[in-house]
Amino acid sequence: MTAVDELPARLTAIADATRELAAEAAIRDAEHILPTEQLRRLLDAGVGALRVPVEFGGSGASVRVLADVLIDIAAGDSNLAQIFRGHLGLTEILRSAPPGPARTTLLHDAAAGRFFGPAGAELNTTNLSALSTELRRSGDHYLLSGRKYYTTGSLYANWLNVLVRENGEFLSAIVPRETPGITIVDDWDGFGQRLTASGTAVFDQVRVDPEYVLHHHSSLTNDYMEAFYQFVHSATQAGITRAAADDLAAVVRGRTRSYPLASTPDPTGDPQVLQIVGEV
Question: Residue limits of the Acyl-CoA oxidase/dehydrogenase middle domain (predicted)?
Answer without folding.
Answer: 126-206
